[in-house]
Amino acid sequence: MPEHNHALARRCPHCDGFPAVAVTTGQRTPAGYRETITATCPACHGTGSLPLAKRVKAGATC
Ligand SMILES: [Zn+2]
Q1: Residue 23 Cα, ligand 1 centroid: separation in angstroms?
Q2: What is the pLDDT of residue 15?
Q3: How many angstroms separate the Cα of 20 from the Cα of each of 4, 23, 26, 40, 55?
């Protein structure tokens, strides 16, 4: 059955709730693992939800 209740937190529309991702650099660490860097969403700064100021501006009540 479909879930009709929405999540309480508003997801960031820029990253859709995936605020931080690991990007491989193509290099290997000395131990042989892939070297990665973490990139965070520039819109929500890695929080995954809309900033409070933007939520108020959009007319949300919570
Ligand atoms: Zn975001």
Answers
A1: 16
A2: 92
A3: 27, 10, 19, 4, 21
Residue whose token pair is 């879930």: 3
**Which structural domain range is residue 46 located in?**
1-62
The pLDDT tens digits for 25-39 are 999 999 999 999 999
How many whole angstroms from 11 Cα to the centroid of ligand 1? 8
For residue 43, give every residue at least 6 positions away whose Cβ sits within 8 Å of its Cβ, in sequence order, or none: 12, 13, 14, 15
Ligand 1 centre distance from Cα of residue 59 (Å): 19
Count of domains observed in the chain: 1
Q: 39 CB contacts (<8 Å, ≥6 apart)?
A: 20, 21, 22, 23
Count of residues in the chain? 62
